[in-house]
Write a structure and sequence with these properties.
alpha+beta; Immunoglobulin-like; 3 domains; 2 helices; rod-shaped
Length: 227
């Protein structure tokens, strides 16, 4: 009798296994969804709310048969609501509703604006900020949703809306034609500087001519003496 009780107890303990570590990954299969909000539901209906830690995996204790229904609620504050079932034989969750977005920030000549500030907004709220690389590109992973992408460089700004439903690339063109002394200038500002540079010699010539005429008249007046 005692042996039977012990066997039942062992079977009960075997059923209450720990599920995990369960890896939560983006659709690329390698990027952990750090900070994602998830809900783990056990077979008995108990629900456990978790936030994915920096190592990208979670563990749930006392899980009957080690089976869980996982709901990935959101990531970066953007709703996902992706559901799947994990078992002791399948403890990796790859979320298909997360895609790669590349933001290319270029000037009016198509030149990449390295160092441009990039901001991604969801429903008016900033979900991510970053800086473009030397070629003017900023790459990130985001849940499928509609975003507003903004870029700023040298006081020039541009923005576009992107509906992210698959890996995508958005180009933001700023009115930056050239940089002089670290100052970003538009095409009209550059033309204004060129025009000003062309006028400077003419202005100097006129000033020199007027000065020469004034000096000549003054010398003639001195030579003539008082009348």
């Amino acid at each position: 009798m005692r042996a039977l009780v012990a066997l039942v107890a062992l079977l009960a303990l075997a059923q209450l296994a720990a599920a995990g570590p369960i890896a939560l990954l983006a659709s690329d299969g390698s990027t952990p969804l750090v900070g994602a909000r998830i809900v783990a539901e056990k077979l008995d209906g108990e629900r456990v709310e978790l936030t994915v830690p920096p190592d990208g995996s979670v563990t749930v204790r006392e899980v009957p048969l080690g089976i869980l229904k996982i709901t990935v609620v959101s990531w970066k504050g953007v709703p996902i609501n992706y559901q799947c079932v994990v078992t002791p034989l399948n403890a990796t969750v790859v979320v298909p509703k997360v895609h790669r977005l590349v933001v290319s920030v270029v000037g009016s000549r198509g030149q990449g604006l390295g160092g441009a500030a990039v901001e991604v907004l969801y429903e008016g709220r900033t979900v991510e900020r970053g800086v473009a690389d030397g070629a003017g590109n900023y790459a990130t992973l985001l849940p499928a949703a509609s975003y507003v992408v903004r870029a700023e460089y040298g006081g020039k700004r541009a923005e576009r809306r992107v509906d992210l439903a698959a890996p995508d690339r958005v180009v933001l063109q700023l009115d930056v034609f050239a940089e002089i002394g670290g100052v970003a200038l538009s095409s009209s500002e550059v033309m204004g500087l060129i025009a000003l540079a062309a006028l400077v010699p003419l202005i100097l010539f006129v000033v020199a001519y007027e000065y020469a005429q004034w000096r000549k008249k003054r010398m003639l007046k001195v030579v003539a003496g008082p009348q």
